[in-house]
Amino acid sequence: MSDDEKKSRRPRKMGRPTTEDALRLTSHILKSARELFFEHGFEGASADMIAEQARISKRTLYARFGSKARVFEAVILDEIDTQLRALEPSGSDEPDIRKRLRVIADRLLEWLLTPRITSMERVVIAQAVRFPALAATIHDFGYQRAVQWVASILAHADAKGELSLADPVFAAEQFVTLVVVAPMRRAALGLSPPAYDDAARDRISRGIDLFLNGCRPREADGCSD
């Protein structure tokens, strides 16, 4: 065997993982942890369980995230970011403000009113006092993004004279709270089923009408703070 052939058969030294490998491992860990957190809650899902589910060592888990709390935070934020990027509305030429608001409400609630997300909401609510920074981050990361989507629609309608708004962002906060957050919270508390069924759609229709009735142009501005 020649020297060149011997060199070619020597095992190569293992180098640092590539960025792609690191991202793939992170995604795998989050997927494994997500299943456990949503099924068992924060307290019920131990670091050992997460490591076993992901088929990694607990040392690797802590080296990548630092603590179980950080894994939990990463799971929740990853879920929100992935779904909101997929749901983010594009520009619409739909002239009817009610239809535009209905489209965005449908997109959000078809995602939020599911057993999976209802389980996530219950876990987040249970840990909100223990991890106030996470609750604030989720608020900014998820709620405020939805508010900005709605605010852009409302501002456009206000500029066209369809609505009369002193503050489109404030009005958008009221819309998201009434139409999106309220049904999601009811499902998390077990007051309604975690499904965007006919009953839920009818409730949303009435909520949108109620909101718009308070925002139509009058002698005095509507929906102002």
TrEMBL record:
**Annotated SUPFAM superfamilies:** Homeodomain-like (SSF46689), Tetracyclin repressor-like, C-terminal domain (SSF48498)
Kindly state which keywords UniProt assigns to this record, in alphabetical order. DNA-binding
Q: Which residues form the HTH tetR-type domain?
A: 23-83
Residues of the DNA-binding region: 46-65
Q: Which Pfam families match?
A: TetR_C_7, TetR_N
- What protein am I looking at? TetR/AcrR family transcriptional regulator
